[in-house]
């Protein structure tokens, strides 16, 4: 089973969040049987998918089943395994769920809950987890973040009193039964849960996101009260983290990385990111109330009046602010900020059909950067056509051309690739052909630069990565990469040896340059450790010579294979040279550029299923750019070419 065959891209994003987090010890989940019990079916489905994601990643053999009440017994929903065989039991309870105001139903649920705990107490589980939420603390003083074993005020007149008392009762029964039966347990109290494709308790974030997506006018009363929120991505990760990485018999709070937000702060985040759609009116007095232009109170329908009451109730809930230091102390790191979570949620609710992207990337400069990179491409195309140099779009630029007919929407760089003979020819003519404002950055043109490939940089601009930002004496302008694909061995053994030598020589140069250690691990950890120590004894000129010698070792030898010795795809190994024999032209941002005729085979070699996009929450730029200054190019746009040139 492959998750993407069952889930949309938003669901797939949060289902895979625990796997991507690198916080969960996957070995503890291998072969695990996970049992989910409760009435929150959609939340339980989300938890189930998050465990099954491990089967996609590492063939973990995890089985998930849901149990429900039938008469006085628990019965399995899919018979994946016998219930008493469960390794992990997760009770979703009433976590972030509206309270049932029927007293008889509440009492019946508590009796059923107590029977369920008695049944579970007879099993031999590794861990039993109860999901709860911050309403258990009651009313908290302003700006007071409740820790796990602290209590707030109990206000019997508050509409939240029933939830507080009920959650406290469930938690009390759970802890008592756990101690009596001797099973390992945890309670995870969450902030207010939100996210795409899941039902949400009516709380300020959910209500304001929905109204922004629908472009509805809303009058909002400012309040100093703050609440903790947690995106579904982080909730799913926290569930697995507590089960596998935290001590038993403890209570933990979990929320997003930016603690708590007030109603006014949520409104400002929405307005900053959706200024055309966000129609929230702020005031400091009166009750929040939906605005229906041109309608009198008598003209409002019952549905509108009900919606008004729900909105008022939701926006006047008292704050629930959680202290999550304990869970973070054990190593939990939430990933999704309220701003990112809100952007994802609103765009999901808008359902425009467009490819999702964060519009607030790069201080609003991403589109301009891509226009500059397109100008680079047109210049390279002009030069290569003039001098009969064969080249192809490369890496993410090639992927964007095939999948998006232009830049990948969140991509911030562009690359072209050539065979070694064409690469050498390009280097010979580039300095004369390129405009004066573009610097050809090579180890031979700039002292202290040890990149094995050609970078073209624009003068009087700044585009420094986290790595190059440490070398401010170098040219750090907006860059474009020109790469060579070199020949490698004809046979598997010679290819592996060539790959290993190239990796080691490149590692010596890169780590000596950055004064870092060669990363150990992989197939040759001992060799990496030796090289990491020996690099201090190797002079840099010799290391660079060895690197370049390894790249061109098979240059004049008869072989039918190439490898990406210069680029980031070195570990992919060899590929057939015939894939880069012939070019075809495809549309890229309205222009025609060359790609390998065998682009499907080449892209599959690079990315696997290359038509699958990266997770929604990771669609920010691909480089860790730490310094950006476009200089005079902040107003750059492509005009009709003059004399065939774009950078005049």
Topology diagram in text:
Layout: H1 9-15, H2 17-21, H3 26-29, E1 33-37, H4 41-58, E2 63-70, E3 73-76, E4 88-91, H5 103-121, E5 127-133, H6 161-181, E6 185-190, E7 192-194, H7 204-213, E8 217-221, E9 226-231, H8 232-245, E10 250-254, E11 260-262, H9 263-273, E12 279-283, E13 289-290, H10 302-315, H11 325-329, H12 338-350, H13 366-386, E14 392-393, H14 395-403, E15 415-419, H15 420-433, E16 438-441, E17 454-458, E18 462-465, E19 479-488, H16 492-514, H17 525-534, H18 540-551, E20 561-563, E21 575-576, E22 583-588, E23 591-596, H19 599-607, E24 625-629
Parallel strand pairs: 1-2, 1-4, 4-5, 5-6, 6-10, 7-9, 8-12, 15-19
Antiparallel strand pairs: 2-3, 8-13, 9-11, 14-15, 16-17, 17-19, 18-24, 19-20, 20-21, 22-23
Textual characterization of the structure:
The chain has 648 residues and is an alpha/beta fold. The protein is 37% helix and 18% strand. Strands 3-2-1-4-5-6-10 form a seven-stranded mixed sheet, sandwiched between helices. Strands 14, 15, 16, 17, 19, 20 and 21 form a seven-stranded mixed sheet that branches. Helix 5 (103-121) packs parallel to helix 6 and helix 7 runs parallel beside helix 9. The two termini are 54 Å apart. The relative contact order is 0.09. The mean pLDDT is 89.
Keywords, please?
single chain; 648 residues; alpha/beta; seven-stranded mixed beta sheet
* Mean pLDDT over the residues: 89
What can be said about the biggest beta sheet? 7 strands, mixed
Kindly state the number of beta strands. Answer: 24
- Identify the quaternary structure here: single chain
How would the global form be characterised? globular
Structural class: alpha/beta
Radius of gyration: 29 Å
Name the strands of the widest sheet in spatial order.
3-2-1-4-5-6-10
β-sheet strand percentage: 15-25%
Q: Which blocks of ≥5 consecutive residues have pLDDT under 50?
A: none
Estimate the helix proportion, in percent.
Answer: 25-40%
Distinct helical segment count:
19
Termini Cα gap: 54 Å
């Amino acid at each position: 089973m492959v998750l993407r065959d069952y889930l949309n891209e938003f669901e797939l994003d949060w289902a895979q969040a625990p796997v991507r987090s690198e916080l969960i010890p996957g070995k503890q989940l291998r072969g695990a049987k996970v049992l989910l019990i409760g009435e929150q079916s959609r939340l339980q489905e989300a938890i189930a998918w998050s465990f099954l994601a491990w089967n996609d990643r590492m063939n973990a053999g995890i089985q998930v089943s849901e149990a429900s009440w039938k008469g006085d017994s628990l019965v399995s929903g899919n018979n994946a395994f016998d219930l008493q065989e469960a390794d992990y039991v997760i009770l979703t309870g009433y976590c972030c769920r509206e309270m049932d105001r029927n007293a008889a139903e509440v009492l019946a649920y508590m009796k059923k809950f107590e029977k369920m705990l008695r049944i579970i107490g007879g099993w031999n589980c590794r861990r039993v987890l109860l999901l709860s939420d911050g309403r258990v603390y009651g009313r908290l003083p302003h700006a007071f973040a409740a820790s796990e074993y602290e209590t707030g005020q109990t206000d019997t007149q508050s509409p939240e009193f029933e939830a507080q008392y009920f959650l406290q009762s469930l938690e009390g029964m759970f802890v008592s039964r756990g101690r009596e039966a001797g099973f390992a347990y945890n309670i995870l109290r969450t902030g207010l849960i939100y996210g795409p494709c899941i039902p949400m308790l009516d709380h300020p974030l959910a209500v304001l996101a929905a109204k922004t997506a629908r472009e509805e006018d809303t009058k909002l009363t400012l309040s100093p009260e703050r609440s903790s929120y947690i995106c579904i991505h982080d909730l799913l990760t926290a569930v697995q983290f507590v089960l596998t990485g935290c001590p038993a018999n403890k209570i933990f709070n979990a929320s997003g990385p930016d603690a708590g937000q007030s109603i006014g702060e949520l409104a400002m985040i929405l307005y900053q990111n959706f200024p055309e759609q966000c129609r929230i009116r702020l005031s400091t007095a009166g009750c929040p109330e939906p605005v229906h232009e041109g309608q009198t109170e008598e003209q409002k329908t019952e549905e509108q009046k009900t919606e008004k009451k729900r909105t008022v109730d939701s926006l006047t809930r008292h704050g629930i602010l959680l202290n999550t230091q304990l869970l973070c102390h054990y190593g939990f790191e939430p990933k999704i900020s309220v701003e990112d979570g809100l952007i994802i949620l609103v765009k999901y609710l808008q359902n425009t059909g467009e490819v999702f992207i964060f519009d607030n990337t790069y201080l609003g400069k991403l589109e301009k950067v891509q226009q500059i990179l397109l100008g680079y491409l047109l210049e390279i195309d002009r030069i290569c056509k003039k001098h009969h140099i064969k080249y192809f779009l490369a890496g993410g630029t090639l992927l964007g051309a095939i999948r998006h007919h232009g830049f990948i929407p969140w991509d911030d760089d562009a690359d072209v690739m050539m065979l070694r003979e064409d690469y050498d020819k390009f280097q010979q003519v580039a300095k004369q052909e390129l405009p004066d404002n573009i610097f050809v950055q090579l180890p031979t043109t700039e002292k202290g630069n040890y990149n094995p490939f050609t970078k073209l940089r624009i003068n009087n601009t700044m585009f420094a990565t986290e790595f190059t930002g440490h070398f401010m004496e170098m040219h750090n302008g907006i860059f474009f990469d020109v790469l060579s694909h070199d020949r490698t061995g004809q046979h598997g053994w010679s290819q592996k040896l060539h790959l290993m030598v190239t990796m080691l020589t490149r590692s010596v140069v890169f780590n000596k340059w950055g004064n870092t250690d060669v990363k150990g691990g992989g197939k040759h950890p001992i060799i990496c450790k030796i090289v990491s120590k020996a690099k201090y004894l190797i002079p840099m000129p010799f290391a660079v010579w060895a690197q370049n010698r390894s790249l061109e070792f098979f240059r004049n030898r008869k072989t039918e294979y190439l490898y990406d010795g210069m680029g980031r795809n070195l570990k992919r190994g060899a590929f057939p040279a015939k894939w880069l024999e012939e070019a075809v032209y495809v549309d890229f941002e309205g222009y025609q550029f060359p790609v390998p005729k065998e682009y499907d085979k080449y892209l599959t070699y690079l990315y696997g299923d290359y038509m699958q996009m990266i997770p929604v929450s990771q669609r920010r730029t691909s480089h860790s750019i730490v310094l950006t200054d476009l200089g005079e190019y902040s107003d750059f746009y492509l005009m009709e070419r003059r004399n065939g040139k774009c950078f005049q």
